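anyone else get weird line breaks when pasting these?? whatever heres mine. first is seq + tokens for prot A
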Amino acid sequence: MDAIKGSPREALWSATLGFFVGFAAVALFGPSANTFQKVMGLGPLALGFLVAVPSLSGSLLRVPFSAWVDTSGGRKPFLWLLALAVAGMTGLALVARYLYPAHLTYKSYPLLMALGALSGCGIAVFSVGISQVSYWFRQRKQGRALAIFAGVGNVAPGIFLLLVPFALARFGLAFSYMLWLCILAAGTIAYALLGKNSPYFQLLKKGMAPEIARARAHELGQDLFPTGNLKESLRISARVWRTWALVWIYFTTFGGFMALTAWLPIYWTRFFGVSVEHALMLTALFSIIASLIRVAGGVLSDQLQEGGENTAILALLITLVGALVMTSSRQFELSVPGEILMAFGMGICNAAVFKIVPQAVPKAVGGAAGWVGGLGAFGGFVIPPVMGFAVGNLGQSGYAIGFITFIFLTLFSVSMAWILKYARETSQANETQMAAAGSEVRFPDEQPVRR
């Protein structure tokens, strides 16, 4: 009656595989948007929106699909998102095969925007995978499991970007899209075969009462269960100012990471005139460093006193230095270290943010994580058009000056991190004083007696 399919290990690796291949469409769409621009006559601002639209759908869909996990388990929402990404990728492959280049005009822009938005659904599986993996693992093992899921999955953009130039040179645009579509479809099928809901959701599907299913699932190794009131969690966390401070920080670092993954190929080719292949390799370098260093950021956050806030401040200062270098640099040899500094800072800060979330909003951790993860990733859509606007107004020099966007974002984020740190210290001091006051008992006409 209560036989369970799957295991924590299978759940971890199937979710990681699904998240990894979910980046396939986005990784190819960004570089190919530069190719589409040449035949469609798009301006810098229009190009900025085009390369950013997958980040829009990939960020905003994280919140509702994450909520869906709490009602049906992770398998169904995960498959729906991957299926939508396959649909978008199929459409782009057909555009590359039958419209590019002769029949691709400015009128095709809405079509490309829509297909790009569908393709972005693949990266929205992040929030679904986080919940699904958490439900499968004991609490003492969740940190390591989630680090593997996020760390390995986030390496995907860098790896795909390393492969894109070779595929484009060897097979051309249309065949490259077909190849990437096959990778995405194969990963979707693999997840469909291997991905299973956690024991609690499997037992509910078998008709078991929720209370009995919870008890039995706990015996089978599940510690975390849905509260059944995600709307309330979202409402409570939205009323806590710390949530919005963290949203802003994550908007700068993870949203900035997504934005630069799409924008850097354009920056390197247009500003320094490097080949598409070298531009994609430089972008892959940025993506891989920012992803792998995230693990170290989590370790640092655990080791330092008040580690989340202190790590975030340190990481944001590193990002600020990188942004200053990128804004002022007119030399290729100087811009590469600037890019690397930004990768280090963003990756470390991304880990620090989710260290702070349960400390800053302890009464609504799930809701706060939804707001931070969803709206923070929205920066991947907003930032590229802003940088494109700088190019449209300033011309060639705008490719460098556009990085001033990150200077302002980072400065404000540092102030938010400092405020979070100060508020936490103040709160701890008040709790200490209240505890001390509570340990005194006053009797009439007598001095305080220490208990």
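and prot B, same format (seq, then tokens)
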Amino acid sequence: MSLTVALNTAVSGLFANQSAIAATSENIANVNTANFARRESTFVTDAIPGQFAGVSVEITRAGVNRFLQSAGYDSASDAGATSVVAQAIARVEASLGTPGEDLSFANKLDEAFGALALLSAAPSSVAAKAVAVNALDAAFGAVNRTLSAVDSEITAADARLQSQTARVNTLLEEVFNLNQIVSGSNGAGDEIDARLNELSKLIDINVTRADDGRVTVATSSGQLLANAGGYAALGFTGGGSAAISLSNVDPASGGQTLVSANINSDITGGEIGGLIALRNTELPALRQIVENAARGIATELNNVYAGNASVGVTAPTTTPLITETGGGFFVNQAILGDPAQFAAARPTGGGPGGANDGAGAAALAALSTSGAANNVATAVTQIGAAARIATDANATAASFASEIETRLASEGGVNLDEELSNLILFQRAYNANARVIAAVDELYQSLLNIL
């Protein structure tokens, strides 16, 4: 081997190990950086026929099991969807109060039946009438509180869908832009992974990767969202039934061409999928359960009350006891404002209701064992069951997502022990090449001195 070849070999080793040291230092510096994939140094022998000519190094991002990464996107999507559903239903359940607070409409209705039973024993007491009327008002007020909680969650879901679709659009555009430079930049690969991780929490996605690092993103059903050639944008339309639309975006002008006005069936995961399920299915179903239960018992109360009369009056009252207005249920304002008007007697045989006739109040109290009253209690139970099921589903999905995230980090993340060992190895190789260069320099000096 000539001195020139030895010198070139040592210099190439010097530069290769210098690059490897820089890559290892970058790994150590980013040990706690989210979405950072460690840099791997691969040394390649450079050779010319008949003699060794040196070494070069390739710095690449650590490879990750693509099946595991796909499972990570799926698990993050499931966790995102179940989380928004569990949180929203838990807030609806909170309108019922804790078990010890007795704030649910079922408990308040039981209290109202108890007050009506007491009124039946003292039908001429204005104070007893006031207690019964206020108890009924509290019962249906609790109904309205739960209905308002459901309506508030629907409104909140609309606002969140609006903001989350805008965020998805930003992420898709950024993926498209990063695709243009990723083939020559490890950092761009990290940035793409960060966008995909966030995107998977918002919608369920399928990701295909090219050898040069570029990615193609689609919905779980195959609707194209972004690649190196362009990207799409989501839109949100509220109203009776919320819908997510899909449009293709012209990267040059930003103009959009509608692909589909409703791709709800293509987005079943992520926060957006969860919000769509909440907005169009879960929350309306809960509202219907509460409405049906309240309407059923209100109808029964009104039917019985229609046969009641005030003391000394022969004809039954024509004033309804419970009214349904603006999506809520209320005690008749005339009765609520003047409880003395409450009809607690019940005429018989064409005669007037007597001074001690509490039969009307007793008939109302007897509804406590009716099917309609049981349906009210069942409605509360159904809300609690829905909250429990949603919470359990979220706990399972979150646990699975955490496990996948840990496994992904172990494959592509930074291990300090390993990196420090590599750093020592590369430093020693660097020093060895430096010593070769020094030795060659001494030999050149010796030869020059001889000449």
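btw re prot B: The CA atoms of residues 72 and 404 lie 6 Å apart. The longest strand covers residues 51-61.
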